[in-house]
Amino acid sequence: MLRYLTAGESHGRCLTAILEGMIADLSITEGFINKELARRQVGYGRGGRMAIEKDSVEITSGVRFGETIGSPIAMNIKNKDWKNWEEIMNIVAMGNGQWAMGEEVTKPRPGHADLAGALKYDHRDIRNILERSSARETAARVAVGAVCKRFLEEFGIKVMSWVTEIGGAKIIPNSKFQISNLEEIFLRAEESDVRCPDKKVSEKMRKAIDSAKKNGDSVGGIFEVAATGVPPGLGSHVQWDRKLDARLAIGLMSIQAIKGVEVGIGFENAKRFGSEAHDEIFYKKGSRAGTHPKDGWGVKGSGEIWPVEPRFFRKTNNAGGIEGGMSNGEPIILRAAMKPIPTLYKPLRSVDMETKKPFKASIERSDICAVPAASVIGEAVTAFEIANVFLEKFGGDSVKETKRNYQGYLKYVKDF
Question: What is the CATH number of domain 3-414?
């Protein structure tokens, strides 16, 4: 139902995103998208590029008078740094086989797409690879995710994130907030420049980043994404590519530098007995025990709750809200591990592609830590995937039609 493409290079003229399949009559503004873009740019440990760019979106199609019209939504984000790279990134042929300013890059950086991409596409100038493989591309994905977030708001679904570990400094699992306080965790994370809800751990994270910077190094970490208000039945068990957890994992793994994804307690399952791992099912007339109604599903955009009780519920959520490839009505909990940024100011050893001689890898301006930014990108890709399966199930070509379909499903669930 939904699909998107992004285009653009890190130091090119702009980034472009096209979102196809978004229904009509959804109110959306550039200001709403810009707030999400701003969240992606902040964070302790970011590099000098963030001091140059102040991302702002320009919607060029698919929206009229503040509402979507059902046609593809095109969005552009200008690169302010383009003016300093115009000659190097010029789209016009230079002639005589000459590269602009002699700026070809031939020294691949360990951990980057540089060498593999150069071999694949037969490029002697690695800039043709590093410009597109750069995480700068994710600004376009955050713009797409913002539109999807706005769509999910109409149905009471909220996507949030926070950071749990950076450079070995982490929130101890048994001290973490409980599931019923997901929104509180998010609000506390929003107040932290490392997006960690625990103030003491936030300070440890900052020290880890400072230490890495002093040593010319970088640090990675772990972030969590939570989606509340998701109804049961999104996704499917019938085919591998329809499983919700698989689609969410693809989305998260597609983010630059992400090397691992968990759903619910993830790898912890391998250490437990079955009796300790699975979430027992209960039934109760009334709202879910221990959970504020606003965290439940069946919520209008206005905050008014549709009557969806009685309902099945679980007192634990080890499954992370997904069983058999389908949402089960509990909050969806995801976790992603980000490797340290591979561009180091104390570069690792590499080999020059032209001379074949050992060399210290090329240095591009880079972050020391981008985990806080990655968590915001995680929200965006999660919002897209959930919006996609939501539309697959409830269809509709307008907000009103989709809401009618959703209301009918909630009535069915209530009477089940």
Answer: 3.60.150.10
